[in-house]
Design goal:
The protein has 202 residues and is α/β, with parallel strands linked by helices. It has eight helices and five strands, in the order αβαβααβαβααβα.
Length: 202
């Protein structure tokens, strides 16, 4: 859409200045509550010039399961969810090993990080954090069959609002444009401060 096209133009301009933001053989886990802008940012960042870039949308990995799929928020979905995250982490590692920058976008809370901790490369882990009203507004504006109910949006917003030992992985995006959000993500990756390490245990 027009907003995304403008955002891409802004990011291209910034990428000219910071061409080493998104490097090959690296993995970025970009997460946050619904309405935080992670998928929009992921789409834009992985279209930038430079090294090959891969956008892995985590929701797609759940949709690959047809018969027997269990809604991932149900308690009985634990084994299924662990399998999906393991497959997702291995896919990210495979692309990174092939020389790509890999962006994993989805609801990847601290409870899902063990599969990524076991990879040979330490991923960047960034939790986008809009304010609640902005997140709800974004979800309701995008329409379609996406989540728009304020109740689960608020619940997920609360979960990502209390990261414990991972609090320094939060990146405020309240009031930022698409281009500004992508720029903030790029600077965060470039800094190296958002990499997962052994002390990052929620």
């Amino acid at each position: 859409d027009a907003q995304e096209s403008r955002g891409l133009g802004d990011v291209y301009k910034r990428q000219d200045q910071r061409h080493n933001m998104f490097r090959p053989e690296e993995i970025l886990i970009l997460t946050g509550p619904p309405g935080s802008g992670k998928t929009t940012a992921g789409n834009l960042i992985t279209q930038l010039p430079g090294c090959p870039k891969v956008h892995l949308h985590a929701d797609d990995f759940w949709r690959f399961i047809k018969a027997g799929s269990i809604p991932p928020w149900q308690s009985e979905a634990h084994t299924q969810n662990a399998t999906v995250i393991e497959v997702l982490a291995n896919a990210a590692a495979g692309y990174a090993g092939g020389g790509c920058f890999v962006l994993v976008d989805g609801i990847i809370g601290p409870w899902f990080l063990d599969a990524f901790r076991s990879l040979d490369v330490a991923p960047h882990y960034i939790v986008l954090r809009p304010d609640l009203a902005e997140a709800i507004r974004r979800c309701q504006e995008r329409g379609g069959d996406t989540l728009s109910d304020p109740v689960p949006i608020s619940a997920l917003h609360r979960q990502f609002g209390n990261l414990g030992a991972l609090e320094h992985h939060a990146l405020s995006v309240t009031g930022l444009s698409v281009g500004q959000t992508c720029d903030a993500i790029g600077r965060a990756v470039e800094s190296g401060r958002f990499r997962l390490n052994g002390s990052d245990r929620a």
